[in-house]
């Protein structure tokens, strides 16, 4: 049975990239690697839409989240954390682990934060040093309004905006320089269509000022060391060489496609998936701003979402993600980020309809595939 991966990370890896990474390993303290790394540095700046350096860390996304905190904040600093899902919750836990005074804006799962709440919280508590958000909260399939929040934080010299863009960078615009984001992070297993194992982080000039006074412990993820070594096209520690080689190829492909086209590609797949889900009669979990990276759908009636997921896996070889915590059993999530194309979406929607019909759900069979094909079947 052919396998399909529709999880919001990891995502499928294109064959040409896999083959590139299958080549014999090279040493990293060589001109050969430095040339590859120079290309990677340029390519990442293009995707992060910044002139600043983008660091390549040998870790999953959480490593970059931790580094974002330890490189900018100090013990006891108050920070405002938007918590509207599992990854917002992770910001809370990381901050707490480092003795940051966490002020939480709890957002109901499926909702996006209202920027006026952030403005209000900053006015009420002028000692807050940072706002931490997810550009796309992967656990709920919602996008928080980064641009509007950045408009608030960029007015203040003493507050930085730290954005977890792990399921956003390369999917929809998060221009670090143009919007005034201060820390932006990404991960290899999302839009970058690579295996897990690399995380990326970029800091604004304002964030570097915060770095000067930051007293939190840091060593492996000390961004200053990465900055120094990046200038000579290397990393402080042994890089994940194979993944960096894959990344160079991916970035070359991205440059050929163009950033705007990448955003359009994702937007169209997202639109088709959402509309197909609605045509089947299902509700989106996102009440506002559904993410361009993935679609979270609510399982109909009393059908446990786990049954839909196991049905798709067993009959069609398709792996989807379920919900976590309060959304467990209630939702299923289809990713349309990275190496997912039009035919993949048409296939998953059709397969979904077959499983739903067998589970006894009554709907206009074929309505979802028709909608998806209407949107995606033309040039
Ligand atoms: C928005 C977001 N933040 C953080 C993470 C954590 O990344 P990782 O699991 O790669 O450590 C993920 C991964 O799924 C994510 O989607």
Distinct ligands: pyridoxal-5'-phosphate
Distance between the termini: 29 Å
Secondary structure class reads alpha/beta
Q: Helix and strand string, N-terminal first?
A: EHHEHEHEHEEEHEHEEHHHHEEHEEEHH
The fold-level CATH name of the largest domain is Aspartate Aminotransferase, domain 2
Q: Can you tell me the residue ranges where pLDDT is under 50 for at least 5 consecutive residues?
A: none
Number of domains: 2
Counted by DSSP, the helix tally is 14
Please, what is the oligomeric state? Answer: single chain
**CATH architecture call of the largest domain:** 3-Layer(aba) Sandwich
How much of the polypeptide forms β-strand, as a percent range? 15-25%
Number of strand segments? 15
Mean pLDDT: 98
- In CATH, the homologous superfamily of the largest domain goes by the name Type I PLP-dependent aspartate aminotransferase-like (Major domain)
Radius of gyration: 21 Å
The level-1 CATH class of the largest domain:
Alpha Beta
List keywords for this structure.
379 residues; alpha/beta; Aspartate Aminotransferase, domain 1; Aspartate Aminotransferase, domain 2; 2 domains; seven-stranded mixed beta sheet; four-stranded antiparallel beta sheet; 14 helices; 15 strands; globular; binds pyridoxal-5'-phosphate
Structure characterization notes:
It is a single chain. With 379 residues, the chain is α/β, with parallel strands linked by helices. It has two domains: 4-9 and 258-376, Alpha-Beta Complex (Aspartate Aminotransferase, domain 1), CATH 3.90.1150; 15-257, Type I PLP-dependent aspartate aminotransferase-like (Major domain) (Aspartate Aminotransferase, domain 2, 3-Layer(aba) Sandwich). The protein is built from 14 helices and 15 strands. The chain has helices at residues 15-21, 31-48, 61-70, 86-97, 115-124, 146-153, 176-179, 205-213, 223-230, 241-257, 259-279, 305-316, 342-358, 367-376, and strands at residues 4-5, 54-57, 78-83, 101-106, 130-134, 136-137, 142-143, 160-164, 183-187, 199-203, 283-284, 294-298, 318-319, 321-322, 331-335. Strand 3 (78-83), helix 4 and strand 4 (101-106) form a beta-alpha-beta unit. Helix 11 packs antiparallel against helix 14 (367-376). It is globular and about 60 Å long.
């Amino acid at each position: 049975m052919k396998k399909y991966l529709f999880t919001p990370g990891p995502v499928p890896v294109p064959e040409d990239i896999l083959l590139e990474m299958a080549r014999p390993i090279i040493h990293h303290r060589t001109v050969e690697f430095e040339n590859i790394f120079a290309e990677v540095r340029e390519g990442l700046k293009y995707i992060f839409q910044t002139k600043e350096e983008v660091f390549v860390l040998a870790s999953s996304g959480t490593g970059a989240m931790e580094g974002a905190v330890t490189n900018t904040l100090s013990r006891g600093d108050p920070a405002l954390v938007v918590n509207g899902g599992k990854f917002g919750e992770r910001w809370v836990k990381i901050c707490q682990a480092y003795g940051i005074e966490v002020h939480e804006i709890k957002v109901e799962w499926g909702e996006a934060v209202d920027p006026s709440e952030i403005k209000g919280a900053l006015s009420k508590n002028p000692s807050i040093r940072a706002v931490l958000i997810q550009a796309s909260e992967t656990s709920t399939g919602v996008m928080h309004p980064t641009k509007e929040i950045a408009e608030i934080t960029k007015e203040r010299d003493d507050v930085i905006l730290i954005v977890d863009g792990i399921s956003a960078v390369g999917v929809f615009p998060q221009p670090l320089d143009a919007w005034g984001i201060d820390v932006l992070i990404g991960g290899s297993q999302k839009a970058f269509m690579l295996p897990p194992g690399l995380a990326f982080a970029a800091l604004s000039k304002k964030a570097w000022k915060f770095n000067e006074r930051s007293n939190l412990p840091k060593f492996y993820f000390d961004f200053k060391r990465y900055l120094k070594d990046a200038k000579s096209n290397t990393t402080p520690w042994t890089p994940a060489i194979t993944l960096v080689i894959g990344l160079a190829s991916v970035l070359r492909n991205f440059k050929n496609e163009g950033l705007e086209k990448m955003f359009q590609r994702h937007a169209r797949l997202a639109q088709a998936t959402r509309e197909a889900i609605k045509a089947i009669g299902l509700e989106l979990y996102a009440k506002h701003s559904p993410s361009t990276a993935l679609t979270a759908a609510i399982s109909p009636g009393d059908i446990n979402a786990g049954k839909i997921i196991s049905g798709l896996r067993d009959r069609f070889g398709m792996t989807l993600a379920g919900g976590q915590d309060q959304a467990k059993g209630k939702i299923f999530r289809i990713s349309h980020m990275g190496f997912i194309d039009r035919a993949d979406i048409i296939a998953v929607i059709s397969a979904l309809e077959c499983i739903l019909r067998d589970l006894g759900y009554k709907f206009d069979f074929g309505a979802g595939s028709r909608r998806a094909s209407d949107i995606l079947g033309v040039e």
